User: Fold Pentatricopeptide repeat-containing protein from Rotaria magnacalcarata.
Amino acid sequence: MKIGKELLAKMPENYRNDNITSTSAIDMLMKFGDVESAERIFRSMKTKNIITYGAMVKGYVGNEMFEKALDLFEQIDIELGDVTYTIVFNACAKLCNDRAMKIGKELLAKMPENYRNDNITSTSAMDMLMKFGDVESAERMFRSIKAKGADIYGALMNGYNLNGESWKCFKVFEEMNEKDIIPNEITWNILIGACSKSGMLHHCQYIVNQIPLNIQNKIRTQNALIDMW
Assistant:
């Protein structure tokens, strides 16, 4: 923090209007939790691109200032990139009030088709919808994605857990097996959570027997298994 702030103080004025340099400075300050200094740099910039706006919105989200994140998002009058969609979906999911639901759903409706097949953007959109309690829309989005990775399946299952439909996770797990999609550590832990909530012991034992040893040895997984039993 000391080195970063000293370097920023010495930075020549002409560099402050370089989008790449200023965006990296904003990102640094936001990670330090120095939101006010990041805002000052942002305001001082004569021209701002979507990456700069994205850094600010992401910084607000990282500092749990979700309303400010949405305030700034509503000021953006340039074309959004996939990263910005992801960040705003995350902000809406965290805030999860009427305003966030309205902004999130409107943004999703406008999202270009090619972004829907980006696993990171789609995962954040599905997570948002599930936190809104809109399981049907999340399921429709899931079905529309052509190439699904473990994270997409994990987002769907986590949403079922959040909405009291844990039993649906077992069907999703079967689909993963059929399509040779290997669960990652996060997905296994979501499945263990589904077992814990469903009370379907025969399914639980079947799933536990398939967890690879290297995943079983992870502390988080061991804690989840202890909680389940």
Notes: The chain has a mean pLDDT of 90. Residues 148-229 form one domain. The first helix runs from residue 2 to 10.
